[in-house]
Amino acid sequence: MKFKQFLKKQDIVFSPKRYFIDALGAMAQGLFASLLIGTILDTIGVYGHIAILVTIAGYAKAVMGPAMAIAIGRALNAPPLVLFSLAAVGWAACAEGGAGGPLAVYFIVVIACEFGKLVSKVTPVDIIVTPLVTILVGGILSILIAPYIGIAASYAGNAIMWATELQPFLMGMLVSLLVGVALTLPISSAAICAALGLTGLAGGAAVAGCCAQMVGFAIISFRENKWGGLISQGIGTSMLQMGNIVKNPRIWIPACVAAIVNGPIATCVFRLQMNGAAVSSGMGTCGFVGQIGVITGWTNDIAAGVKASITAMDWIGLIVVSFIVPAIVSWLVSLLLRKINWIKKDDLKLTV
After folding, report:
1. Against a cut of 0.85, is the pTM above it?
2. Are residues 131 and 173 in the same domain?
3. Where does the pLDDT of residue 230 fall: very low under 50, low under 70, confident under 90, or very high at 90 and above?
4. What would the pLDDT profile of 266-281 be if each residue is shown by its tens digit?
5. Which domain covers residue 46, as residue numbers?
6. Which residues pair with 200 in a beta bridge?
7. How far apart are CA 177 and CA 239, in angstroms?
8. How many whole angstroms separate alpha carbon 112 and alpha carbon 104?
């Protein structure tokens, strides 16, 4: 059997879509099902003084690495023995990767998964060989390269955060626009923010950009999609508009302009910071996770003695950046584009 045929038989497909869209999207789901839910439970437990929720939250956050690994493996169509073995790989990569653990998990799990698939069901002792190869490859890579991947991710994230502190206006626009665009594209803005550890002022700009996309599309497409579209895009995902964007890229202009405006408002006017889980920076208004993350950050800062209390201006800033600016700016820009016929009737209509 030729090698290409063998790879096809083992379902090993070298595809940008599989590795950079499917795997990254799955990684974000793994983060949601562990770190993110754990963070939400922890916030509720702390505010509500419910000790059992805080304990459960700790368990959920502790399995972040395995959860991401299994999610990635599922996206890569890993056979059962490979999939189950990836839990150990995810734990190792996350532990060795330090602050850049999510990025280390992504790269190492993809490689370990494909090596596991390479030997899956090839030998009569598959139950030993497949887990052995998967865990050995993943474990060795975790020890050898995960720390360096983590350091590189931390440097990149810290550079973005440092630049945002130094130039909050320009970086506020840039981070807001790029992370917001990533949210609408079929890749995972949440996974990118988690991989880079994007928090602080840069995290606030990322939240602003994601809110601009989600709320922006929800508002400008209300005449076509009514309340169902408002909810599905406003607290679901703006990715639903990707099909329409491909047909008419001009419909993306209002949300992108809103992101450019919203970023500096977040960084310069309200100094909005995301000091909760970095994954929340790339979530926007999806399930209000971005807002919960900001509130969690406030709680963390108060506990650390960095912040005295949550002020009225904090709440005003969160509401203005999350909802008001995205809605007003995108709506005004869309009116202009409809007037000059760049956005036509039903260009924004959802078909799903």
Report:
1. no
2. no
3. very high
4. 999 999 999 988 888 9
5. 3-150
6. 274
7. 15
8. 12
Place of tokens 């990767």: 97
Q: Are residues 181 and 322 in the same domain?
A: yes
What band does 89 get if pLDDT is binned at 50, 70 and 90?
very high
- 177 shares its domain with 321: yes
Do 49 and 193 belong together in one domain?
no
Q: Which two tokens stand for residue 6?
A: 């063998």
Please say whether the dihedral angle defined by the alpha carbons of residues 139, 144, 149 and 154, taken in this order, is positive or negative.
positive
Residue 89 within a domain: yes
